Amino acid sequence: MTLVSNFFTDTAVAVVVLGFMIFIHELGHFMAAKRLGVRVPVFSLGFGKRLFGFKRGETDYRVSLLPLGGYVKMAGEDPSEPHTGDPGDFLAHPRWQRFVIAVMGPVMNIATAIILLSVLYKYHFQKPAYEEQPARIGEVDGNSPAAKAGLQPGDLVVQAGDLRNPTWEDFELKVITTTGEPIPMEVNRDGRLLQISLTPQAEGADQTGFAGLYPCLPNVIGAIEPGLPAIQAGIKPGDKIVAIDGKPVACFGSLAETLQGLKGQWLDLTVLRASHGLHFQVRPVYRNIQGKQRWVIGVDSPRMDVVVRQLPWNRAIATAVDDNIRNTMATFDVLEKILTRHMSPRSLSSPIGIAQISGEAYRSGIPDLLMLVSFISLQLGIFNLLPIPILDGGMILMLGIEGLMRRDLSLKVKERVVQVGMVFLLLLAVFAVYNDIIKTIKPY
């Protein structure tokens, strides 16, 4: 019953989110066309049969049957239709005005992404605390790309590709968007600078980059598992681990790494409890943890700290702009790597994947949903600026070519270009849907 309920919730949220984003997109075209004197017979939210609406002036404002999408019908925009000589026709206007009308759709989406994040950050700026901290490694999975590269807990990332002194947020994004390619790194290990090459591998349903390293979490014990060595020795939640066998501990992950190296030998834990230093002799046991055999003593890491605060308007806007710039650069980086076959195209999603993600964000709360809506709006703006025929970017490209030629392209050429664009988008949609079905049936 829960699966059925989630399906309907996901679908409803996706329809609302995509419908709103496409409405904003078409509103950009509509406002520009009206401002520049182009006649607009129809402004529709949705496609297909007209359900209801009203007419004001020359424009029929309508809601149509199919909710995913919308369109603005401008007079004279179809080059195959006979020219009427009406000065209100789209093609009767100068190229620079047609460019403004074409570009205003993506501009509205990008502006919406920035506005949504700015408002959210003004009243609720939230992120894991570690993302704002320097990228100091706290834990490394055995036999992972990070382990094979020689990275160790406590290493501070000084350089990762083109990133200098990255935060964890920037470093994680670098790893996620890199698969099968080495990232040249410089790390500070106990005051020594080491040159290391890290090659993330594709993993997960989206086949994104995975390195097997994690941030430095505070070395405070979060929970104790019953029946295991830690609780038998007298260790309690809230104890802070300060040393293992006399060696200082900076991150909680150092404990897990040390346990694997000792292979069941006794160890001396020095912990701080209410300002008092205590020593405990503990012997690890070998257990299956999430499908992996590991040495454990029965302590869990602390709950991850989350930064929640309100930002003043200037900082909220600046942070929203920075985040959108970062996401834009990452998007183009991913597109380039997909085209050059350095990254799997499984990261592409169709409305099916968007529905699943939207439903999860909705269940997580309004802040997560607004973050997702902002991201989708940005992606919609970027996608429509790509130089693909029948998209806004394709029209902008043709206008640029015609401007250089100082004449319009022939009707035959334009028709062929539109046909190629429609076939490409259809194949892309089929591939994205196939991607999402495969990820649902076989996530890994």
- Compute the separation of the termini in Å: 25 Å
Work out the radius of gyration. 28 Å
Which regions are unreliable across 5 or more consecutive residues at pLDDT < 50? none
Q: Report the principal-axis shape.
A: elongated
Helical stretch tally:
11
pLDDT averaged over residues: 85
Number of domains: 3
How many strands appear in the DSSP assignment?
Answer: 20
Helix/strand-derived class?
alpha+beta
Largest sheet: 4 strands, antiparallel
Helix fraction, binned, reads 40-55%
| Strand order in the sheet with the most strands | 6-5-7-8
Sheet-strand content, in percent, reads: 15-25%
Structural overview:
The chain is of the alpha+beta class and 444 residues long. The protein has 3 domains: 2-39 and 74-124 and 349-441, no CATH class; 131-215, Pdz3 Domain (Roll); 223-286, PDZ domain (Pdz3 Domain), CATH 2.30.42. The chain is built from 11 helices and 20 strands. The strands form 8 sheets. The chain has a 4-stranded antiparallel sheet with strand order 6-5-7-8. β1 and β2 form a beta hairpin. It is elongated and about 90 Å long. The mean pLDDT is 85.
How would you summarize the topology of this molecule?
Layout: H1 2-35, E1 42-56, E2 59-73, H2 95-123, E3 125-128, E4 137-140, H3 145-149, E5 156-160, E6 163-164, H4 168-176, E7 183-189, E8 192-198, E9 201-203, E10 208-210, E11 213-215, E12 223-224, H5 229-233, E13 240-244, E14 247-248, H6 253-262, E15 267-273, E16 276-282, E17 285-289, E18 292-296, E19 299-300, E20 306-309, H7 313-339, H8 351-364, H9 366-385, H10 392-405, H11 411-441
Antiparallel strand pairs: 1-2, 3-20, 4-11, 5-6, 5-7, 7-8, 9-10, 12-19, 13-14, 13-15, 15-16, 17-18
Helix pairs in contact: 1-2, 1-8, 1-9, 2-7, 2-9, 2-10, 7-9, 8-9
